[in-house]
Amino acid sequence: MDLTVFLKFLPWSGLAAMLGGVLFSGKVLWNMINIRPSHATDVTDVLFFFAPLLLLIGMAGFCTLCAQRYGTLGKMGCIISLSGLAVGAIGSLVGVWIEPLRLAYWLGFRFLCIGLVLLGVATIKAQALPGGWSALPLAIGLLGLGRTLFMFFAVTMGSTGLNAPEAGDELGTFLSSWAGTLTSVLGLMFGLGWLCLGYALWAGKSEAT
Length: 209
Fold this sequence. Notes:
By secondary structure, this protein is an all-alpha fold. It has helices spanning 3-33, 43-47, 50-66, 72-94, 102-126, 136-156, 170-202. Helix 3 (50-66) runs antiparallel to helix 4 (72-94). The chain is globular, with a radius of gyration of 18 Å.
């Protein structure tokens, strides 16, 4: 990519990542406060299509920015993250009308998080972003994986899932009672992480700019 074109694209990719992060956190908040039947869809599910799409644009800018500094690990992280976001964007839109295809979003989200962890390790190793900003991709990936873990416990150990844990099983009781809340909190932090990463791109917080 021509340097001049790239420098013009970088702030826009950062803005896209910020907006995607805000939409993601907003959707989590909506699900927390909105009372509706389980698994029901509404207009926010259609609008949520833009969240992974915007994050995809932001990730493309980030990977383009740091590509020359990455080795095999970083490049693998970029490919996995971008592929996961692409699948997630398709799944989040098509899944509104064809419910089984929602699985594509969740699979894409998991691949995104795995890719971010790989990308984060490579970013820290290469110091692709100055200071503590290099830890952002790793932090976002770990938040996403943590959200996936607690979401699993929320589904399998909730009131409609497995039987409540026996008395004395403090860890099981904690997971059963708080997994849903922790899933939402980690989702909010995941979106805020993208907001920070987008700001780093938008503000040009890189030696490459």
